[in-house]
Records
---
Amino acid sequence: MEYKRLIVEKEGHIATVTLNRPDSGNSFDFRLMEEIDHVFRDNLDKDDNIRAVILTGAGKYFCTGVDLNIFAAAEPEVDKEELEQGVASSRVQAEEEDVPWGKGTVVGAVVVMTTMRKPVIAAVNGAAVGLGFSVALACDIRVASDRARFSMIFVKRGLGPDTAASFTLPRVVGLPKAKELLLTGDMIDAAEAERIGVVSKVVPHDELMTAAKELAAKIAKNPPLAVAVHKEALNKSMIETDIIKQMEHEIAYTDQMLNTEDFQEAAAAFLEKRDPVFKGR
């Protein structure tokens, strides 16, 4: 696919994806929705050379949500039957069973981002509003510019939460704070986002991409198979209610890693007092 709404750069083991509609606040039109799903599902997830991904926005904004112009079509986007079934589900259900859920949509991209084996870092350069906030929350780690702002604005627009916001936000900030942010739609600044755990670090605006790339490089330096199972284990821990079951998952991961070339390389490098060279095998 030719990307018209994204800038995709690959340098070494790190890919940087930039939402590139700066004149529209990097808001999502249908083309951008299709492209972001494609770049994660059919490009980066399948590129064995890429070990970490950075997602950011061009210009002043990270992402201001959905481009409201997409609702100006002559025909209504959903009919009465679809509304009764639930608008969000009717838009993303595939007609064929073998088509992945949400393929070609931003919700599909979020599913891929959260489940792919490679970590995704959001470099939040400006306002992340509504859908933009949801997409940032789908990333594994968030680093913010001191100019960043965040709002779950859905309620102020008369809409329900979207793109897994009601799933990811309480897992990041806790249920009471998530209710406050979703029910008020308030805007919070970068310092407050760091305080409540939405972002792990706030840096001066001009240092944002440097900080994000340094973090990505630190992760990419580790054996990619081990990084992948750590991400998977942490994701499982959010739904696992039995500590013994979680430890059983960890044992299975350890057994899996003991059979990799990267584990053997890590052991050899330690004994030989040199830096390891991991190949993802």
Note: Residues 145 and 205 are 5 Å apart (CA to CA).
---
Amino acid sequence: MKRLRITVEGKTYEVTVELPNETASAAPVASAGVSAPASSPVSASSAISPAGPGVITSPLGGNLVGISVKVGQEVKAGDQLATLEAMKMNTYINATSDGKVAEILVEVGTAVQEGQGLIRIE
């Protein structure tokens, strides 16, 4: 069983998922339960502990298909920084705080892992 937190249209839900390859005693092959929305939304980048100070990390594995900022650019919390494609869906990576883009850690077209650093803001 895994407990996940997902955000849909600004509402955050805690979901419990049973994976089919987990060993369980006569349990159904797969099931999911959804609890009431969590009290505060969780942004994609804050759901994972950062790789370092100011580093925005990838919330899931996928291909980086776009970077919307340049080194030296001022950004505000919520500004779109990058676009990640996974399972034919785009996930927008947003700034979690105001600051200046100090470093872009990956190139467009790169396959990234969950938790991998993408952009550093100072």
Note: Residues 2-37 form one domain.
